[in-house]
Design brief:
It is built from 13 helices and 14 strands. The chain is an alpha/beta fold. The chain is globular, with a radius of gyration of 21 Å.
């Protein structure tokens, strides 16, 4: 989110103002800046479409996964879904810019790298899938060129990266935060106007409740079809039944009701995970950090002391899979919960869209 109250509150001079002025009102005041931002991003897109700005296409299939809004829409589990769908038949390369890394240029990601070097998500992909190639590069054209021994390239968070023209675009929008009901920054959360959705080949409404019915899907499709005329599908996040850790021990998620849990997150939207823990009748305390937060020694001390202070004989420290990549080499006894994308009744339709594109361009 462009304006985040927790960041503003770090400035003592603004604390009193924040208590008096609602955040929605601040965003409203920023509306003129949103108009300027929308004009600039629209012109940029037109310049790429007219060929004034250079863009590069590749002969191999390139699938870009991204969104119009800032914040979490489920890109990581969507990339993993595509890896699982294609890796048996093709040599897969995944390219990310490596958000939050301290390095520059192209790097291949492997077990020797740290999250500070390559970013948490690329490191997660590399550790989880040994038979794919993962690279990071802020220059996506150069990065794809370096992924020589690959047949299909998946671009992570690349919907606005117009210097590469992907062959297939998967646009994600969250069930609770549809792009079709949002505004551009800083009044809203959109990186570009809603009309940017027309570049997509498929729109996936992510993080839907498992109980979503046909009528609600129809209503959501109606809102999105104002800006996108192609296939609109729906997916949900499914949590693993097992908690995993570095010590090779697994715990059934259903057993969390017997523990006092310290939940540590550094993701954009931890609300679904908190709701999941509540559904398991789990007692938990939540330490929330910003998205992609790089945990300092001071943070680790705070986390460990908070965990030690839990008044329970049965206690456990739990985090997300993405955060585990950044925490596992700093805290020994921490568990994580895997998630995956579930398309439900839309799985075959989505799979067919992807496999038809890849087969026709390989």
């Amino acid at each position: 989110m462009f304006f985040q109250k927790r960041k503003l509150l770090r400035n003592p001079k603004l604390r009193f103002l924040i208590t008096l002025v609602p955040m929605k009102f601040i965003r409203f005041l920023a509306f003129p800046f949103s108009l300027i931002y929308a004009i600039v991003t629209t012109l940029r897109n037109h310049f790429f479409e007219l060929g004034i700005f250079k863009t590069t296409q590749f002969k191999k299939p390139v699938i870009a996964v991204g969104n119009l809004s800032v914040g979490g829409t489920g890109k990581t589990p969507q990339i993993e879904y595509l890896i699982n769908l294609l890796k048996a038949d093709y040599k897969i390369g995944v390219l990310s810019r490596g958000y939050g890394r301290k390095t520059k240029g192209f790097l291949l990601v492997d077990e020797t790298k740290h999250a500070e070097d390559v970013g948490d998500e690329p490191l997660q992909f590399s550790k989880k899938y040994k038979d794919i190639t993962v690279g990071v590069d802020e220059n996506r054209v150069h990065g794809i060129q370096q992924l020589n021994n690959t047949e299909v390239v998946l671009l992570d968070d690349a919907f606005q990266h117009r210097k590469v023209t992907a062959g297939f675009y998967v646009l994600l929008t969250s069930y609770n935060d549809l792009f079709s009901k949002d505004f551009v920054l800083p009044t809203g959360n959109l990186r570009e106007p809603r009309t940017g959705a027309r570049r997509a080949d498929v729109v996936v409404v992510t993080k839907c409740p498992l109980t979503i019915d046909a009528q609600e899907k129809k209503d959501l499709q109606y809102l999105i079809k104002r800006y996108f005329k192609g296939p609109i599908l729906f997916s949900s996040i499914v949590y693993s039944a097992l908690l995993k850790s570095n010590n090779k021990l697994s715990i059934q998620a259903s057993e969390l009701a017997n523990y006092h849990v310290l939940l540590v997150t550094g993701i954009a939207n931890p609300k679904p995970l908190k709701a999941h823990l509540s559904s398991l009748n789990c007692t938990f305390k939540h330490l929330k950090f910003s998205d992609h937060h790089q945990f300092s020694d001071k943070d680790i001390t705070t986390i460990q002391s908070t965990f030690d202070a839990l008044n329970s004989e049965q206690k456990i420290m739990l985090t997300t899979e993405k955060d585990f990549v950044r925490l596992s080499d700093k805290i020994d006894d921490v568990y994580y919960l895997e998630i995956e994308t579930n398309f439900g009744g839309h799985q075959q339709e989505f799979d067919d869209l992807i496999t038809r594109y890849v087969k026709s361009n390989t």
